[in-house]
Amino acid sequence: MKVRVKSHWPPGHIRTPAYLRGKIGHIERRIGLFNNPEESAYRQAGPQRELVRVRFHMAEIWGARAERGEDVIEAEIYAHWLEPV
Amino acid sequence: MPHDHHDHSHEGLSPSGHPYRADNDTGLSYWQVMEIALRELLIEKGHLTAAQIHAQINAMDSRSPANGARVVARAWVDLEFKAALLDNAGEASRTMGFDIGPMHLIALENTNEVHNVVVCTLCSCYPRNLLGLPPDWYKSRAYRSRTVIEPRKVLLEFGLSLPEQMQVRVHDSTADMRYIVIPAQPEDSFGLSEEALATWVTRDSMIGVGLPLAPQ
Predict the structure, then answer these.
(1) Which of B31, B51, B90, B92 has the CB geometry, 3.0–4.6 Å to B85, for a possible disulfide?
(2) CA gap B183, B69 in Å, rounded
(3) What is the CATH classification number for the domain harbouring B69?
(4) What pLDDT score was predicted for residue B1?
């Protein structure tokens, strides 16, 4: 499944790396429900969030600067940061 | 001739002519003061004892890459275990008797087509509960930023040259998972016992910046 990482820039404890925001990848696997660090970092008790591993091609992230476009990066992204493409 | 003229001062140098490391006489940082205050409060209020805290420090210090090496060696000789490891590396490590606490672990298998390498761009997430503390370079800005931008160049600097057609997969430990690479078993090691194989598995090969090596 194809997804895009939201291009949001809120303040706070965010574990969505800046270099992946706005980028499109494929879901590699779904891992399960975890506490949301954006809330738990401030002792806020919110709902757990689904954590998803997303695979991105280097060409999508770095464009023509990519060392080898077919290589990939995989990262864990909380589902509320993902939107369908 | 070095070390052979006695007319200059060796003051401040060791007998072999090297400088002594300076004593750490600097003041405590804000966070060091915070840690001491919190620790003393927990002890004074009876939540923990100093012995319990020290036992935890010792438990972490006793974890080493040798634990991960045993897991990898088992995966090399036991296909059923390897399947379990790829399905849930944390549970599989626990079945071998390793106390890894609540850590969620994912195993990444290197093949002829794929090479995996692990980084944490946000901080220094590392499978400490299995492999012990990470090497210093793992926490450096250079490793953390360059590995996602130019992994092949970084791996070359570690002495690892990958074929162009092999895919590099960089795993950024951004959240709750920790990662261990299962390196491909070297042909020279085929047929060895599980115990002997564990001595081939290096820390760097489980991070993905090196390959297994014949023990020296």
Answers:
(1) B92
(2) 10
(3) 3.90.330.10
(4) 43
Query: Model confidence over B114-166: pLDDT tens digits?
Result: 999 999 999 999 999 999 999 999 999 999 999 999 999 999 999 999 999 99
DSSP label of A13? -
| pLDDT confidence of residue B162 | 97
Residue B182 lies in a domain: yes
Residues B160 and B82 in one domain: yes
Note whether B112 and B175 are same-domain residues. yes
Residue B104 lies in a domain: yes
Rounded to the nearest angstrom, the minimum Cα separation between B171 and chain A is 5
In a domain, B18, yes or no: no
Torsion of CA A38, A39, A43, A45, to 10 degrees: -160
Q: Which residue, among B86, B105, B148, would best test binding to A if mutated, counting the most A CBs under 10 Å from its CB?
A: B148
Distance of CA A22 to CAs A4, A26, A82, B174, Å?
A: 6, 13, 9, 16
Each residue's pLDDT tens digit, B22-69: 888 889 999 999 999 999 999 999 999 999 999 999 999 999 999 999
pTM of the model: 0.90
Rounded-to-integer distance, Cα B33 and Cα A72, Å: 42
Instruction: Strands of chain B (E only): list them.
Output: 104-109, 114-119, 167-172, 177-182
Model confidence at B15, pLDDT cuts 50, 70, 90, reads confident
Task: Please say if B120 is a catalytic residue.
Answer: yes
Range of the domain at B193: 64-207
Q: Please judge whether B168 and A31 are an interchain contact, meaning their C-beta atoms are less than 8 angstroms apart.
A: no
Question: Cα-flanking dihedrals φ and ψ of residue B28, to 5°?
Answer: -75, 145
Same domain, B55 and B149: no
Task: Assess if residue B86 is contained within a domain.
Answer: yes
